[in-house]
Amino acid sequence: MRRHRGDCPSFPDLIRRKRDGGRLSAADIRAFVQAVKCGSIQDGQIGAMLMAIWHKGMEPDETLALTEEMMRSGDILTWPQEWSGLVVDKHSTGGVGDKVSLPLAPALAACGCKVPMISGRGLAHTGGTLDKLESIRGFTVDQPVERLQQILEDVGCCIVGQTESLVPADRALYAMRDATATVDSMPLITGSILSKKGAEGLSALVLDVKFGRAALYKNIDSARDLAHSLVTVGNSIGMRTGAVLSRMDTPIGCSVGNSLEVCEALECLKGRGPSDLQELVKTLGGYLLWMSGRASSLESGQEKLAEVLQNGAALQKFQAMLQAQGVSMETAQSLCSVQSDYSLHFRQAEHQTELKVQNDGMVLDINGLTLAEVLHSMGAGRTKAGQPINHSVGAEILVRLGQNVQTGDPWLRIHYDSPALNATQCYDLQAALTVGERESYHANPRVAEFILPR
How far lies 249's CA from each of 359, 405, 444, in Å? Predict the structure, then answer.
């Protein structure tokens, strides 16, 4: 292989080798990641390498090397010795109505864990945890590392954005993946997710890998392959890592849209809220408590999570987190009061429109992807990084799967600003609801499978 500038490899040779199905050594991958970080490689060469990886894949040792080099491209967080075994987090591959992180982080903190949850923003039809929290007046997602550690010391959890010093290579590669249509490459997904989580200095990580029409992977087999890749590499870099496979056809809970989802997360923290949201929070949290040694079994962990959701301990942690991250004491206390009037604390959309059921029968399906895409077109999401969003745009689902409905019953309430819903949007939303015969209904739990640590 040709070498340029001393020990620096020829990137065209590396691209050619991967394009033709060859393997890259750890040294090759290190050189590539360092060049991405330093800007010493051309954008066209980065794109070509990403496409070669997308087309030919990577062997497990290549994926591990890519993850480790990306993780080492910036700072790696370290924590006090007395926190050993307690620092945990979760990652979701994205879905519609996925507000699980909001109740999960404080619930884990109430169980004695430290949760430095570094989250992202929404892109395309999936919502972002940071966007949801920023609908709360005063909440600040950008926190220096020193402040992050203080919040963990005082509260036990925080939900923040990625700092400039953590995994800089991933930011560059992710932007290029989006531009080159290589976002769905399994080794690149694995490297992106786990390099960030590894840089958090975690003891344990649970991954919520979603499948279905509103997920990145449409079928359970491909989601399972990704989960196995993530679990294998996560454990190899020193994090006890497990995963669940969860269905993502219908929205999680009854609300979609940033501020509406915060309200629903608060209801969950008050021991109320939709059963499928509670199921995911208890399952993922219980898994983490078991992996981190805070519970003797998955079932015991789920019981502990359920207890702190019911007795108010998780809600108290959420209130403390709000105040620690910039929300006024009065607002935090009001939001977390048992009978809070949420409308006092969130900007309300200019208009609300209810859609009606068009025929008698049982609710068989609610297409989460269609619902999210319409809301996205109305301002609830963004198509490229940095775009502003409208936190008040969203939808309340007024029916549940398996419910008997009649023609004229309201099934969806849309919150929006001007302009009004157009004919195409109304048609698409109505088509998202399927009503039919009882015999056609099959109830499925959210969680389909567990992938255990290796």
Answer: 22, 21, 11
266 within 8 A of 342, measured Cβ to Cβ: yes
Cα-trace Rg, the chain: 22
Q: Which of 91, 121, 282, 294 is catalytic?
A: 91
The reply to whether 294 belongs to the active site is no
Selecting among 92, 192, 255, 292, the annotated active-site residue is 192
The answer to whether the CB of 412 falls within 8 A of the CB of 370 is no
Whether residue 400 lies in the annotated active site = no
Question: Catalytic: which of 28, 98, 131, 170?
Answer: 170
DSSP classification of residue 81: G
pLDDT at position 298 over 60:
yes
Residues with Cβ within 8 Å of 250's Cβ and at least 6 positions away in sequence, in order, are: 96, 214, 365, 366, 367, 368, 401
Say if residue 187 is preceded by a cis peptide, omega within 30 of 0. no
Long-range contacts of 22-25 (CB under 8 A, 24+ apart): 23/59, 23/62, 24/58, 24/62, 24/65, 25/65
Q: How far apart are CA 292 and CA 283, in angstroms?
A: 14
Q: In whole angstroms, give the CA distance from residue 159 to residue 141.
A: 7
91 labelled catalytic: yes
Q: Please tell me the distance from the alpha carbon of residue 49 to that of residue 273, in angstroms, as a whole number.
A: 46
Amino acid 272: pLDDT? 93
Rounded Cα–Cα distance for residues 136 and 149 (Å): 22
Name the catalytic one among 37, 90, 114, 196. 196
d(Cα 239, Cα 191) in Å, to the nearest integer? Answer: 14
125: annotated active-site residue: no
**261 close to 97: Cβ distance less than 8 angstroms:** yes
Instruction: Say which residue, 7 or 10, is predicted with more confidence.
Output: 10
- Determine whether 4 is an active site residue: no
Whole-prediction pTM value? 0.93
Pick the more confident residue, 376 or 284.
284
Q: Residue 46, Cα to own-chain centre: how many angstroms?
A: 26
Note the pLDDT tens digit of each residue in 132-175. 999 999 999 999 999 999 999 999 999 998 888 889 999 889 88
d(CA 249, CA 378): 21
- DSSP H helical ranges for 155-185: 168-179
